[in-house]
Amino acid sequence: MRNKLLLTTSVYPFPSLPQNEAATDVMGQRFTRGNDIFTMVSHTHAIALHLLAQNLQFPSVVLEYPRWKQFSQEVAKGYCVIGISAYPFHLDSVLEMCRHIRKTSPQTRILVGSYAAQTLKALGGLEKYGDLIDDLVDEEGVSYLRRLFGEDTQRPVNQHFFPKNGAGMRYFGKKPRGHTVLLFSGLGCPGSCDFCSSSAQYKRKRIELLSPKELIEHVRHYLTHSPNSIQQFYLIDEDHFRFPEYLLQLRTFIGDDPSFLGKADFVVFGSVDYIARFAQKYGWEAIAEAGIGAIFIGVESRTAGGHGYRKRHSYDAKEVFEQLHRIGVRTIGAWIAGFSFQTRQTLLDDLHYFISCKPTYQQLSIFSAFPGTPLHASLEERGAAPRCQFSDYHFWNPTSSHPEFSNRELLELTDHGYTLGYETWGPCLLRNLEVHLNGIQFCRESPSAILRNHTALLHRKNADKIYTQLRAMAKFAPNMEVQKRIGAVEQRYRDLLGGPTLAIRLLSQASLALAILYKFKISFHAFRWTPKVEGFRRYRYNPGIGTPNVAHYAVERR
Ligand code: B12
Ligand code: SF4
User: Fold this and answer.
1) Least buried of 92, 206, 218, 281, by fewest C-beta within 10 Å?
2) The whole model's pTM is what?
3) What is the DSSP string of 256-303?
4) pLDDT band at residue 525 under the 50/70/90 scheme
């Protein structure tokens, strides 16, 4: 065969979600959902595939979101190995892809990786799927492929040339510019929550992919080569605060040269108890000094701690959120509806408690049992595992069963939660601005020179940027309370930073005009919002053409 390795996502289109939003549009389907015209739109690249291709020493091809025709044309070129990275959600298409490869290229070795592999293993493994698939890779993939192709598994894992994800206001258009770099600092979590796929996938351990020193080196690399376009780094891991030493080392390396803090910050993952413990021991400002600007926090439920979820045992989520906002750290709060301990008496209280935490962004989902998790195994034992199609394995699985609530009710409840957040606190964008203003104040008064001289600059830059949307937010505020809130935030901006500059005033006018136009446009059925469609991209990787500063791939879009 002429070609060694093809890596691909599932073919496109992906299954739909109950909210009629694209699975790859995280801002639309989750984090800013329910914000009327301030619901954002985002796009995602298949970064895990780039991680694999960038760490092998031979040429390969990566396909992102191929349509069937593009996929079958590529298969026809003849590959020794085809690897598909997918989630269970994609498995109907993935199995179809495998059938096609078997038929048209029978010598090709077929690998299926990521959570799709975990699921198939749990549902029968190669005994059941071996006709179509040669291996199910539910482990760290760089090491796996290096082993498979006889390469040194001990070489460092590089992540220098990832395409950037992006998000923006829908009234600016459907194709936001890329400004977010995903970096994989670690995989897996020792937390062992029964519903958690990633903890189960990596056998309740954390596998480090980048040391703190390597991470900072990567950050500097990206900021040197795309100096003006990067706003944040999403550090993919599970619970950074379980590993305080990692964060403290980040803080030390940043302390040696803090200049990047004025340009971009880190979005990390944390749990309530471990964040609180970290802050108790090292101080809240240590979080900001480690470069952290936002944290994804699984609140799950107010009473989750009493039901075996140890990460929620000892501290009050509301207090943790308040402290983080006070120091200028944004939050992405995650709440789950449908734990069996939530009853008709308690579920709404639970939701109101979550909303009272005032998450800057939010994710409200339904408790679901994914195959491969301890939860799914125990339901299976009792003959109560959800019987559903692969495409139902998402955060709102319509076949999850709760003793008191139907799935429809739970789905409506999550939607109600989004509306409640919007009508109580205003758009996520407004909450974001409030946190940046807190950050400016906190940094100014802080004894830490790093926060005063560097982090404050980033808060200022972001506050100015979001301020340009305040007039549009005021125009379309959902109620008088939010209107008042917007007025107060505007005044606070002026008190802290003085009046807006001419450029900011002009941008505000232009944004308001675009927002009005957009609101008018979507009132017509023909122009209503339709889910974001990801474009196809083909990346031809050739390690031979790369240098430390130049990516070793060429991109083709068709
Ligand atoms: C970032 C993220 C997203 C992003 C980007 C996803 C993407 N495709 O790039 C966004 C926000 C768009 C997203 C969306 C969704 N996500 Co998501 N997401 C994550 C998150 C936080 C990190 C994923 C990640 O990048 N991990 C790091 C990479 C490197 O790991 P990896 O993909 O597993 O790849 C490694 C190995 O698996 C292996 N590997 C992977 N593929 C292959 C292929 C081959 C051939 C080989 C050899 C190896 C290999 O090698 C890699 C390196 O070791 C995880 C939670 C987590 N920490 O894992 C949830 C998670 C993966 N998401 C999940 C879900 C359900 C979804 C959605 C269906 C959401 C929904 N609305 O319901 C959609 C589907 C998106 C889609 N592509 O269609 C679940 C999956 C659970 C499950 N069992 O199905 C997770 C685990 C969250 C959770 N705890 O439940 N997600
Ligand atoms: S703490 Fe979070 S990442 Fe860790 S096992 Fe629990 S849910 Fe999963």
Assistant:
1) 281
2) 0.98
3) HSGGGGGT-EEEEEE-HHHHHHHHHHH-THHHHHTTEEEEEEEEE-TT
4) very high
